[in-house]
């Protein structure tokens, strides 16, 4: 097979590992920077050019789309789809899963446990927030942040009001969630591929409250409870994801879904568990291709 990875840089750990495992299984691996692609529709025939060269002979794509280029990345995936090329992540699913509020709405509709949440577009006072979330601290998030960027802990009503007002003036909607104090600045990242849980690690913040590895958190392999495993698989299936990183937080109410990442990094999970995630993604891509051929 000829497999293209949509990635900005072939030296990124996740991209490099996919190349390595793909070649190990006998595939021709290509890296296509989606931000250097041009879409052409000519006589109702969709074509794609990368660095002014026509993209040909690709059997499947594995998208690794950054949060700051979601829209254009989704349009490139959609164009591959219109060319009859299968993708491990559909354009529609990428758009829906990347927006934190949209994905939480979908999960809530299907009775998936999540933290109490408010989506703020206008703020007269904090009475509604206090009613839904209890007293501060509260966690403030922007809808499309990743790797802990755009996540703020407000310890008081005054600081929450100030932060929310600032973000609203910048035309940025705000997600406000209850702070799960009992989690003690830890969460669990679960890696799901092709409907199977490959591995899980507990992430613990070294300082502050954000447990992202990019923020200096530490990771250790962990065994999931049946409830955690069921929650991760259900959330992934509901959002229509073939590959996902599911973030779960422990609360006094039981495990809660924080978010589901459609382009999870592989480095942390491969370093902290014995699982060869990149190999499993290549195998899942092979299965997808043969099922749609």
Short description:
The protein is of the alpha+beta class and 293 residues long. Helices cover 33% and strands 29% of the residues.
Model description:
α2 links the parallel β6 (60-63) and β7. The protein has helices at 13-24, 70-82, 91-98, 100-109, 127-133, 157-169, 226-238, 267-272, 277-292; strands at residues 2-6, 28-32, 37-42, 45-50, 53-54, 60-63, 86-87, 117-120, 138-141, 151-154, 174-178, 186-193, 196-204, 218-221, 243-251, 254-261. The strands form four sheets. Strands 14-13-12-15-16 form a five-stranded antiparallel sheet. The chain has a four-stranded parallel sheet with strand order 2-1-6-7, with helices on both faces. 33% of the residues lie in helices and 29% in strands. The model has no long low-confidence stretch (mean pLDDT 91). The chain is α+β, with helices and mostly antiparallel strands and 293 residues long.
The CATH first-level class of the largest domain comes to Alpha Beta
User: CATH fold name of the largest domain, please?
Assistant: D-amino Acid Aminotransferase, Chain A, domain 1
| Number of DSSP strand runs | 16
- The class by helix and strand makeup works out as alpha+beta
Order of helices and strands: EHEEEEEHEHHEHEEHEEEEHEEHH
Number of helices: 9
CA radius of gyration is 20 Å
Approximately how much beta-strand content do the residues carry?
Answer: 25-35%
The average pLDDT score comes to 91
| Whole-number count of domains | 3
Give the CATH H-level superfamily of the largest domain. ATP-grasp fold, B domain
Shape: globular
Percentage of residues in helical conformation: 25-40%
Characterize the largest beta sheet: strand count, sense, and whether it forms a barrel. Answer: 5 strands, antiparallel
Strand order within the widest sheet? 14-13-12-15-16
